[in-house]
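Entry for the shared binder. Reason: the reviewer on the internal report wants the predicted structure included alongside the sequence.
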Amino acid sequence: MHILGLDIGGTGIKGAPVDLETGKLLADVVRKKTPDPATPDSILATADSIVREFSWEGPIGCGFPAVVQRGFVRTASNIDDRWLNLDAAERFSQHFGRPTGVINDADAAGLAEMRFGAGRERDGLVLMLTLGTGIGTALFNDGQLVPNLELGQIEVRGKPGHEWAAASVREERGLSWEAWAHGLEQVLKTFEAMLWPNLIIIGGGISKEADKFLHLLTINAKIVPAQLGNEAGIIGAALIGDR
């Protein structure tokens, strides 16, 4: 089955059709800048321009940068406040004239890694972290998603976890890999004490440099880099479009 995945972020919107049997993209990714302000109308218009570039008439799934409960948007950190409490799934479905699934963007990336990447065929508790501007988290128990787990906001030694371990922190503060990994380890130890995961997957662009920091982490859980890179959000969005 082929579904178009849309990955909507605070700075960019991208999409591509996905083969759900293989998890492979069927065309090059189309990227657009997220409009400012990121209102419902402006995001829908940008997403629509991507759909039209593919002349796409089939099913669509959408990863969204917010807590999404049964299609309703509950947070708006990186989008316009006019999204709050809006039924995004209904709004996208009406706009495109077909059912459109909507899911938190970190959960979408996690779904993709569990189906086609580093979490494939892994049972038990699996935690995925997407390290970027902040920390996105996705939690799975025996392959079942526990949605909207905003663990990056949990306090670690007096401040939110993302202020210790987001990839942006290393860049903005000019930290060495060792110094940044120490902060990441404090965050992971906090998560581990709460959840006792069997596997932790590190995603985001920084996962490409896993060899520079994973060996510096001393935690109980097995920890591995994500495998799908920046395509994970698109692939996971397509998976939700099949529900």
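Summary line for the report: The radius of gyration is 17 Å.
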